[in-house]
Design goal:
Blueprint lengths: L5 H8 L17 E4 L5 E3 L8 E4 L6 E2 L2 E3 L2 E3 L4 E3 L3 E3 H14 L3 H13 L3 H14 L4 H13 L3 H14 L4 H13 L3 H14 L4 H13 L3 H14 L4 H13 L3 H14 L4 H13 L3 H14 L4 H13 L3 H14 L4 H13 L3 H14 L4 H13 L3 H14 L4 H13 L3 H14 L4 H13 L3 H14 L4 H13 L3 H14 L4 H14 L2 H14 L4 H13 L8 H14 L5 H13 L3 H14 L5 H14 L7 H6 L15
Antiparallel strand pairs: 1-4, 1-8, 2-3, 5-6, 6-7
């Protein structure tokens, strides 16, 4: 809250506690303004009750209850004829001014104008009140509110400081001054005024709530938490205190407790969109996307112009695997708040999920234009460049993300994955090392560093990294899948079979685990088991040409004659080539080997020539492929014993999930 919306600050801080269905019920929840100075506040709804103060401290109050001729405010009861409904105050004080102009009447009418959305008229009344009485603190307060509504925060701050100077023992003015100082970036100044307000009136929960906000602004979360709790103890009806404490609990990962606080805030003030939004943020952090979406929808139902709620719901849809709905909400959020870099970045991710990579790049570019130092925009744009095959641009964006946010382990992890894909293995390992140093309990960098060790044939180190992952999370299926591949690398067939089986218990559709178990079973001599695993993998995901190619090779050259089916091997090899659009050299080379197995060497030569043309010139794999081509030309079948022992390459699953915010 700031002096820009002091009116909202008052209204939000004064909760309704009592409903009276009898006389005066039409006053419940109404804002009222005292008709005259020094209206007495009494303890009970009776003329002879003890006086506990006056209404001079504030300009406006919310009615909590009514009884006969009395109205219950936060501090006690006042006579109904001593106050006027805020909605009727302009006419009432206009008549008063016509009879006798006074600083009191002008300042109160100015406040009513401010409540009615007429800040220019409010400012005119405040200025006239000050002209009539330069010592009228309420007039300066009214001026501060008017300036805030007009977007002139610096002038508003000056006005509220003047009000405090004139009435230093007024707790309300102290709190409004603290609010303005906090908005101006002076939390220590805000704390000073909150301390004084609490000293003046230690029963006002707003002092503790606002001081908690100031403590939070400078990272004193424990002190902020204590202040919010004290505010709640002082006034169990302070919905804002529950909300702010809930935000702290969300940030601390205490999601159950956070939701409980937001429940209380919503119970007290069900029509405040922000409370529903904040509870949605707790559900979002907890990855309970359906409940998050429901709360964001509730916030939007209350306020259809609540841009942040649209952006948050779009993010929830994105994480919940619904990019179309995400795109719709984020576009609406951008329409309502076109300066939100976060909305553009998240919409870029939605475009990416939908395959529209050019729009994804455009949105990331716009986010960077809005916020040139937004590390996330560079980070996510790098992921799109990577998907487009623009590795140099991706690397440049990862470098910039690291420069802007050098303590974010995700940036090193992602750059390491890119380096691994580009076969800069040592550089990848170095980036994974940095990511692990920043986040020792993060699973991803360990899994991908294990893959890098595997690429260097250092399977022992790969196993060590995957052991660590499994200690951190015994249900991480990827770790078992990849450790199975590493065990194959050191000849641990039984261990590989066990790990692949565990991976499949965790994730029954893990085709990579099926492949690895197939390799281990083949090496152990269980040819039928190896074939069965590949058959299952293809049944689960027919779009995997590598699985079809591996089964084709096994059927064409299996040492177990009973398991061999060379004609089917040819058919599967052709199917793999079709699925890979005849652009995968390994699949085409497998087709050539299958042709050779059935004695069709002319077809084998033709297919092998296609495979050679797709391979990088001057590489070891090209040399091997040309040797196979010579064998086919000599009408000689290959001795594929060594190649069958691994089929092709040991396979691992990448741990990096699709990018998301």
């Amino acid at each position: 809250m700031t002096v820009l919306n002091s009116l909202s600050s008052f209204i939000a801080s004064l909760s309704l506690l009592v409903l009276d269905t009898g006389a005066g019920a039409d006053w419940i929840g109404k804002s009222v303004i005292p008709k005259r100075p020094d209206v007495p506040v009494v303890r009970d709804a009776a003329a002879d009750s003890d006086v506990v103060g006056t209404l001079n401290d504030e300009m406006e109050f919310t009615v909590r209850g009514a009884h006969a001729h009395w109205l219950q405010l936060k501090r006690g009861w006042v006579a109904r004829d001593a106050v006027i409904k805020a909605e009727d105050a302009v006419d009432f004080f206009t008549a008063e001014i016509a009879r006798h102009a006074s600083s009191f009447a002008h300042s109160r009418r100015g406040y009513a104008h401010a409540m009615g959305g007429s800040p220019a008229e409010a400012l005119a009344d405040a200025n006239e009140a000050i002209r009539l009485d330069e010592s009228c603190a309420a007039a300066y307060f009214c001026r501060a509110i008017a300036y805030g509504s007009l977007g002139k925060a610096d002038l508003g701050l000056a006005a509220i400081l003047n009000a405090v100077r004139l009435d230093p023992e007024n707790a309300t003015l102290r709190l409004e001054c603290a609010d303005a100082l906090l908005a101006a970036g002076d939390p220590l100044g805000a704390i000073t005024h909150c301390d004084k307000a609490i000293q003046i009136d230690g029963n006002d929960s707003r002092g503790f709530t606002l001081r908690g906000n100031a403590h939070q602004a400078i990272g004193r979360r424990d002190l902020a938490f204590n202040d919010y709790t004290t505010a709640i103890q002082s006034d169990p009806g302070d919905a804002r205190a529950y909300c702010f404490r809930g935000i702290l609990r969300t940030e601390a990962g205490e999601y159950v407790e956070a939701v409980r606080d937001f429940d209380d805030a919503i119970r007290l003030e069900p029509d405040v969109a922000g409370y529903h939004h904040q509870r949605g943020m707790a559900w979002l952090a907890k990855e309970d996307y359906d409940r998050a979406i429901a709360d964001f929808s509730g916030a939007i139902k209350i306020d259809a112009t609540f841009a942040i709620a649209f952006i948050a719901r779009g993010t929830a849809f994105l994480r919940n695997g619904k990019p179309e709905q995400s795109l719709t909400d984020l576009s609406e959020g951008i329409r309502l708040m076109p300066t939100s870099a976060t909305a553009f970045v998240n919409r870029a991710l939605s475009w990416q999920r939908l395959g529209n990579l050019r729009n994804a790049i455009d949105d990331c570019n716009h986010a960077i234009w809005l916020e040139p130092n937004n590390a996330g925009a560079y980070f996510y744009r790098a992921g799109v460049w990577d998907e487009l095959g623009q590795f140099a641009k991706a690397m440049a964006d990862y470098d910039e993300a690291i420069r802007l946010a050098p303590r974010d382990p995700r940036h090193y992890h992602r750059r390491g994955v890119l380096l691994l894909r580009m076969e800069y293995i040592d550089g990848a390992i170095n980036d994974f090392d940095l990511a692990i140093a920043l986040s020792p309990d993060g699973l991803g960098p360990y899994v991908d560093r294990a893959t890098a060790w595997g690429a260097k044939r250092d399977f022992r180190r790969a196993i060590e990294d995957l052991d660590r992952v499994i200690r951190l999370d015994s249900k991480c299926g990827i770790a078992y899948t990849n450790r199975a591949a590493a065990f194959i690398g050191v000849g641990g067939w039984e261990a590989a079979i066990r790990d692949a089986a565990t991976a499949l218990e965790i994730e029954p559709t893990d085709v990579t685990a099926m492949y690895n178990r197939s390799v281990a079973r083949f090496r152990k001599g269980d040819h039928l088991g190896a074939i069965a695993d590949l058959e299952n993998a293809i049944a689960v995901d027919p779009s995997q040409p590598q699985m079809q190619s591996a089964l084709a090779l096994l059927l064409a050259y299996c040492p177990d004659e009973a398991a061999r089916d060379r004609q089917r091997g040819v058919a599967l090899a052709r199917q793999a080539c079709n699925v890979s659009a005849w652009k995968d050299a390994n699949c085409i080379a497998t087709l050539a080997a299958a042709y050779a197995a059935v004695g069709d060497f002319d077809a084998a030569v033709g297919s092998q020539l296609q495979a050679v043309d797709l391979l990088p010139h001057g590489t070891q794999i090209e040399t091997v492929a040309r040797g196979d081509l010579d064998s086919y030309r000599q009408r000689t079948q290959l001795n594929l014993g060594n190649r069958l022992s691994e089929f092709a390459l040991l396979r691992t699953r990448p741990v990096v999930a699709p990018l998301r915010r």
